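Model it.
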Amino acid sequence: MAEELPGVLILDIGGTHGVLEDLAVLLKKHFHLITMKEFLGNKEEMSKKIQSIFVFECRPTVDRELLESLPNLKVIGNSGVGVDHLDLKMISSFGVKVTNTPHAVADPTADIGMALMLASARRLVEGSVSNFPGPSYFFGMPHLCCDRDDLPESIFGMLLQGKILRGL
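Modeled.
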């Protein structure tokens, strides 16, 4: 069955640079996974099977030499945000398409941005540090004095509720 699935080239599974193991399980449902080590060990046979490259955290590096060695390559799937690490002009000259997920993290990024602005405007870090026991340094910065009256009680309620809900 795995031989009938289209081959996808990945750097590795797990480790410090490989595709996350949970993601590899998902990919295996639709593709025959071929690691870069397997590909380099048997280029002649493997190059015919590979129809896709899955780029995870900018790896594997897609260069002219790799593209020339993959005659059946149809698509490069990029898992990151942005494609600056890919030479789109060169890749398209081989007739290969590139996919990307440009809005995949747009909502979480906006959420974090809003949280940081609110935390900054309400001095939450300073309030948390001065009102909760803990080390004398927070994120490597010395405690800054702030007046508890400067922060609304509702903010402290949210902080405590979040800690209780997460079991901290």
